[in-house]
Amino acid sequence: MSREERKLRKHFEEKAKRERRLAKKFSRQRPGASKSAPAGQITEIGPGYCDVMTGSQRIRCRPTPDLAIGDHVLFSLERRRVEEVLPRRTVLSRTDPHNARVQRVIAANVDVVVVVVSLKNPPLRPGLIDRYLIAIGKSGAAPLLCVNKIDLMSSDEELDALQPYQDLGIEVLLCSAATGEGLEILSATLAGKTCVFTGHSGVGKSSLLNALDQRLDLETNPVSSVNEKGRHTTTSSAMYELSNGARVIDTPGIREFGLWNISRTEIARYFDEFNVHRCNFSDCTHTHEPFCAVKTAVESGDIPIARYQVYLRIVSSLA
Ligand code: GDP
Ligand code: ZN
């Protein structure tokens, strides 16, 4: 595990501890939030309803406005409504397109975000991967880079582009939904976890899910140059269980996850390990400025070069 990862893990462990403490306090403060109210997980949200899964039962309830798929809740069986949303372990969110200060929750309590990419057809887009990683980094979930369509690979050198992610300590899996290569490892990695699959359209997300569990029978589409955003017209979010016990969340928001505009302040927040190094200018962008403490830290190896390169790529994509 890299220093980076240890730091992140420690951060999230502390965050989880804080949340558990808060939850305890909260439940003490609100005796009315019935101790006997049954608990369950939100497995579907649609217009005006949500489904709460408790044991093997699925109960349709009235949702609360701030509810997200994956939420653990207390609910009232008599009133058929959600009474309380329990603290979230992880939160996938995106900035509201109309108000950059508002965060919209896409899904809660996700363990792994599987970023599916392909090397060819469609080609690899490292800039897109960086954006996904930023958004995942904020969420508390673990990223998994799943490189699909390796049956189309003609030489090992095509994998060189993935080296920076491996250097960052991100798990990279090579697989092919077409030949089945790597699927056992993918299945074992996800077993029992709550995950989402994201990535550019045409990389093979549906094909991979179908290969992991034939019962799904998701529609797959040949790669086309047409903008396919309109293809998914469903407005509801759902969670379904694969035969390996993995729970996969599918929501409309996840399809655009990572694709929105990231502001400079968000980037600074994500690369907060840069902030311990005091640059000459307080508004230093760590690119061209003289006496930049971040660049010095990169040179001395205090900040991993791969991490700095990701930063530079994102900053230049914003320029
Ligand atoms: P999605 O948009 O990410 O869900 O992608 P799809 O699952 O719909 O797949 C897009 C296209 O890529 C389809 O024509 C699939 O048959 C094809 N495809 C998916 N996985 C593979 C693979 O591993 N190898 C090859 N050669 N083609 C694949
Ligand atoms: Zn600097």
Largest sheet: 11 strands, mixed
The domain tally reads 3
Q: Could you tell me how far the N terminus lies from the C terminus, measured between alpha carbons in angstroms?
A: 33 Å
Shape: globular
The amount of helix comes to: 25-40%
Mean pLDDT: 83
Could you name the ranges where pLDDT drops below 50 across 5 or more consecutive residues? 26-33, 224-233
Bound molecules: guanosine-5'-diphosphate, zinc ion
* Count of β-strands: 13
- DSSP helix count? 8
* Structural class by sheet pairing and helices: alpha/beta
Instruction: Tell me the strand percentage band.
Output: 15-25%
Supply the CATH superfamily name of the largest domain: P-loop containing nucleotide triphosphate hydrolases
Query: What are the secondary-structure elements, in order, as H or E?
Result: HEEEEEEEEHEHEHEHEEHHH
Please identify the top-level CATH class of the largest domain. Answer: Alpha Beta
Which CATH-level-2 architecture of the largest domain? 3-Layer(aba) Sandwich
Output the radius of gyration. 21 Å
Q: Give the CATH topology of the largest domain.
A: Rossmann fold
Overview of the structural elements:
The chain is an alpha/beta fold. The chain has three domains: 52 residues, Nucleic acid-binding proteins (OB fold (Dihydrolipoamide Acetyltransferase, E2P)), CATH 2.40.50; 153 residues, P-loop containing nucleotide triphosphate hydrolases (Rossmann fold), CATH 3.40.50; 55 residues, Orthogonal Bundle (Ribonucleotide Reductase Protein R1, domain 1), CATH 1.10.40. Strand 1 and strand 2 form a beta hairpin. The longest helix has 27 residues. The two termini are 33 Å apart. About 6% of the residues have low confidence. The structure holds guanosine-5'-diphosphate and zinc ion (ZN). The site of zinc ion has 7 residues, from helix 7.
